[in-house]
């Protein structure tokens, strides 16, 4: 066994010989000490600090456990007595609990109460020495923190509920708009079938009507696509990006061919995500790269998968299109924002909003770097995947 | 009887090309407008205005337009002509019912009204009265 440090032995000696040391420990680190005669249980000595903690003048109190037993919370007394009996029966069971006392001014005092039984030669407990520590401040801040957590929970629930409601509303509205828009499209198509009898002005107006209702239907479809993405359960799985891109490109074959677009896929590999959402994102980015192509050159689109040092997924879609003016860059992801007139380049202003939503649904983000007249690079960043 | 053409020159700034065509029909029917200037782009409208603002009685201004929005346009006009000018009168003509937009528009002295699309013949009649009133004063 290791030799006892000389200062340790000295301190033990000091405490035994010099009562001021004992008083120093009581006053400096404890909020009350008690010493109980278990053979004559009506006798219990309580230190002055013991009573001061509860707002009482020590002189007014007898050295009798009945004095504190009327101040302690009843259910906490039961808990303490239970521990007391267990500790007496088995020294390895600690007498250690946090109990509440009623302060003279009516407030609650939280006390950590620890004790140890002193046993005779037969192992029978004859005395009990205990100490109090005031933990009221800790308990109060804990209560306050819990209350704040509770308030946050409530606020979160409310936000979730109203999000859910808004989603249902947006979905309902777009869905219900679909039916009259479809009917209108059919009415106009029917008139168009007998267009021979119409005047030139009527023919022109009919043409405008058909175009407008088509625009409306596209807008409704995209709004539905967007609202479906809000709060949808993600159901992530492994996505083979090469296969997914091939599928998307097949669907876009007409656009790709007519614009003479070449698409280069570089080392795409596999990622974890929701395949249908990631598909919608790439479809939008590719459509944009073709739609906003440069007037004087055929589109070249490069899609690349880079893993950063943090194992973050970084998917780049680069084009050689018209690019985005620096001062407009922040607008393009905003809902319904457009940089072009509809008659110049048709669109709803929802495509990139949808992309951003998909990125956010995956815990990632999407961003753009662009030089006007040279091209743009959209970057989808997804959090680390193993 | 030929109605008096109270509005000699009306400028319409709106990015929707189809609306321009339809408003032209409607405005012609009222017989209250002598000349209609159609602008698809607020920036072009600004260039035009720099040279001709005294000749224009009324501007119908859309808010949500790509490139330069209606509010961007108002800022530029204020820069160019100051806040005090009385000609032309500007009226917002928009699908936006957002109270924030309405409030924002009201803070420009040159904006005399805020009107929701679609435009009607009655609207044009009201605008004509506004123009007549501002010329009388």
Structure, explained:
The complex is a heterodimer of chains A (386) and B (137). Chain A is built from eleven helices and twelve strands. Chain A has 386 residues and is of the alpha+beta class. In chain A, strand 1 (33-37) and strand 2 (44-46) form a beta hairpin. In chain A, helix 1 (6-17) crosses helix 2 (19-29). The longest helix of chain A is centred in the middle third of the chain and has 58 residues, at 136-193. The mean pLDDT of chain A is 91. In chain B, 45% of the residues lie in helices and 22% in strands. A five-stranded parallel β-sheet of chain B has the order 2-1-3-4-5, with helices on both faces. In chain B, helix 2 runs parallel beside helix 3. Chain B is globular. The model of chain B has no long low-confidence stretch (mean pLDDT 90).
Q: Which SSEs are present, and which pair or pack?
A:
The complex is a heterodimer of chains A (386) and B (137).
Chain A (H helix, E strand, L loop, with lengths): L5 H12 L1 H11 L3 E5 L6 E3 L1 H6 L11 H5 L4 H16 L5 E8 L5 E12 L5 E10 L1 H58 L6 H30 L7 E4 H11 L1 H6 L3 E5 L3 E4 L1 H17 L8 E8 L5 E7 L31 H11 L3 E7 L3 E8 L4
Parallel strand pairs in A: 7-9
Antiparallel strand pairs in A: 1-2, 1-5, 3-4, 4-5, 6-8, 9-10, 10-12, 11-12
Helix pairs in contact in A: 1-2, 6-7, 7-11, 8-10, 10-11
Chain B lengths: L6 E7 L3 H14 L2 E7 L2 H11 L5 E4 L8 H12 L7 E6 L4 H8 L4 E6 L4 H16 L1
Parallel strand pairs in B: 1-2, 1-3, 3-4, 4-5
Helix pairs in contact in B: 2-3
């Amino acid at each position: 066994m290791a030799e006892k440090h000389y200062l340790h032995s000295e301190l033990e000696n000091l405490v035994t010989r010099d009562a001021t040391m004992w008083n120093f420990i009581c006053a400096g680190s404890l909020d009350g000490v008690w010493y109980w005669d278990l053979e004559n249980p009506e006798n219990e000595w309580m230190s002055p600090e013991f009573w001061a903690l509860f707002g009482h003048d020590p002189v007014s109190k007898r050295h009798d456990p009945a004095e504190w037993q009327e101040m302690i919370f009843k259910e906490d007394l039961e808990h303490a007595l239970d521990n007391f009996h267990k500790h007496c029966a088995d020294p390895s069971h600690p007498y250690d609990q946090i109990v509440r006392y009623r302060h003279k001014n009516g407030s609650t005092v939280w006390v950590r109460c620890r004790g140890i039984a002193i046993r005779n030669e037969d192992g029978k407990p004859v005395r009990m020495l205990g100490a109090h520590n005031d933990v009221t401040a800790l308990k109060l801040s804990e209560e306050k923190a819990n209350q704040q957590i509770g308030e946050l929970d409530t606020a979160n629930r409310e936000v979730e509920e109203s999000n859910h409601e808004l989603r249902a509303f947006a979905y309902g509205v777009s869905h219900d708009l679909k039916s009259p828009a479809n009917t209108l499209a059919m009415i106009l198509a029917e008139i168009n079938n007998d267009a021979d009898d119409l005047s030139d002005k009527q023919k022109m107006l009919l043409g405008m009507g058909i175009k407008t209702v088509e625009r409306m239907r596209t807008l409704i479809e995209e709004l539905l696509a967007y609202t479906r993405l809000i709060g949808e359960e993600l159901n992530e799985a492994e996505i083979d990006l090469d296969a997914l891109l091939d599928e998307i490109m097949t669907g876009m074959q007409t656009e790709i061919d007519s614009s003479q677009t070449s698409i280069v896929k570089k080392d795409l590999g596999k990622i974890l995500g929701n395949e249908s959402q990631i598909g919608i994102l790439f479809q939008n980015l590719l459509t944009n790269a073709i739609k906003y192509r440069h007037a004087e050159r055929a589109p070249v689109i490069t899609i690349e998968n880079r893993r950063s040092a943090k194992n973050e997924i970084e998917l780049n879609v680069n084009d050689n299109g018209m690019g985005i003016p620096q001062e407009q860059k922040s607008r393009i992801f905003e809902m319904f924002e457009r940089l072009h007139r509809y008659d110049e380049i048709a669109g709803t202003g929802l495509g990139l909003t949808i992309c951003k939503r998909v990125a956010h649904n995956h815990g990632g983000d999407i961003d753009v770097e662009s030089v006007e007249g040279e091209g743009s690079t959209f970057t989808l960043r997804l959090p680390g995947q193993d | 009887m030929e109605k008096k053409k109270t509005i000699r020159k009306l400028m319409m700034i709106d990015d929707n090309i189809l609306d321009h065509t339809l408003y032209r029909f409607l405005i012609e029917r009222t017989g209250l407008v002598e000349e209609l200037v159609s602008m698809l782009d607020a920036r072009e409208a600004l260039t035009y205005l720099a040279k001709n603002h005294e000749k224009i009685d009324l501007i119908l201004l859309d808010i949500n337009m790509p490139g330069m929005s209606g509010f961007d346009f108002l800022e530029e006009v204020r820069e160019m002509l100051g806040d005090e000018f009385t000609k032309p009168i500007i009226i917002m003509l928009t699908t936006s019912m957002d109270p924030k937009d309405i409030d924002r528009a009201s803070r420009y002295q040159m904006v005399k009204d805020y009107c929701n699309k679609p435009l009607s013949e009655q609207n044009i009649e009201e605008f004509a009265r506004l123009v007549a009133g501002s010329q009388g004063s």
